[in-house]
Amino acid sequence: MRPAHVVEIVTPKKFMLNGLWFGPKDAQCVIVWVHGLGSSAFTKSHIIDELVNKHTAVLTFNNRGHDKISSVSSGRNKRIRGGSAHEIFTDCVDDIEGAVRYAKQQGAQSIILAGHSTGSQKSVYWAAKKGKGVDGIVLLAPMSDYAATVMLSGKKKIARAMSYAKMLLKKDRPHELLPESVWDWSLMADAQRFISLYSGISEEEIFTYWESVRKPKTLLSVKIPMLVVLAEKDEYADRSAPEIAAWFAEHLRSSSAVTIIPKVDHGFKGGEQLIVDRINSWASISMKATS
Fold first, then answer.
1. DSSP secondary structure code for residue 217 in this structure
2. 177 forms bridges with which residues in the sheet?
3. Do residues 256 and 225 lie in contact, with contact meaning Cβ atoms separated by under 8 Å?
4. Any residues with CB less than 8 A from the CB of 188 and at least 6 apart, and which?
């Protein structure tokens, strides 16, 4: 395990986020890592370890959706509800902007944004809203949370919980958690978060490969080069990796690329070196093409 420096990121809207800086302080390239749903700055260290070298640092940080339930400091001793159960998806723009600015302040010559799982949706959404500040975006296991949950829980169960969540919204109780009698505690979510994740029509539903006729407008609007890295055995995929890869290839710009890591699941355990090799190869090619 590599040593890390503890850092504090202040977002443009003055929220304080804790982070870890792996690698040299004066790195030429900084990879800003956006963790997935309910994860944290401490997850996926097996991949981060392989990404760090004498020229490259990795900045991981707790975005507002870290862990299941948490609180986030907004300054002046004020805190708001956080965690994957309570976060408001669109707040990811402020979180990621804070991390990107922090990396710039450290003197990074090149910044790559890397999102894992739901962190991929956040990375694309940030890019669609901001569009500047990074040289490339890596999407690791960019699965649709809606499609995955339909596969795992079924439309009937989702519809029942959706009705309950909408009822809470009408009663102005957006941050009330859905009870266990309605929704599995392991997928804990308040009303507004449930609707964002599982309605299939929210701003968060960016990877719409499950509905071929829909244009993924947010994804199409991003001009920054992207590398999509899929896991061949992803347990959250409702169809084969080649099918999902084909959908991404159809909707990405020519400066972007799609690759599949064989024999690994959603966490990419065992495929770390392949991921690093493919990121390095893609970054070398894409940076030359856009310079």
1. H
2. 190
3. yes
4. 68, 69, 84, 85, 177, 178
Of 204, 230, 251, which residue is a domain's last? 204
Task: Give a yes or no: residue 250 inside a domain.
Answer: yes
SS3 state of residue 119: helix
Tokens (6 digits) for 108: 């990074």
Query: Residues 29-45: what's their mean pLDDT?
Result: 95
Cβ-Cβ contacts under 8 Å for 132 (sequence gap 6 or more): none
pLDDT tens-digit map of 114-169: 999 999 999 999 999 998 899 999 999 999 999 999 999 999 999 999 999 999 99
Tokens 């202040």 correspond to: 10
235 within 8 A of 252, measured Cβ to Cβ: no
Residues 96 and 136 in one domain: yes
The residues, ordered by sequence, that sit 6+ positions from 264 with a Cβ below 8 Å of its Cβ are 231, 232, 233, 270, 271
Q: Is residue 211 part of a domain?
A: no
Which tokens hold the place of 177? 């958690």
Beta bridge partners of 80: 72
State which amino acid sits at residue 76: R
- In 211-271, where does DSSP find H-type helix? 217-221, 241-251
185 C-beta neighbours (distance < 10 Å), count: 11
Q: Which of 167, 184, 204 is the last residue of a domain?
A: 204
The rounded radius of gyration (Å) of the Cα atoms in the chain is: 18
Give dist(CA 39, CA 37) in Å, integer. Answer: 6
| Sequence-distant (≥ 6) Cβ neighbours of residue 47 within 8 angstroms | 116, 140, 268, 272, 275
The secondary structure of residue 246, as a DSSP letter, is H
In a domain, 50, yes or no: yes
Q: How many domains does the chain have?
A: 2
Q: pTM for the complete prediction?
A: 0.95
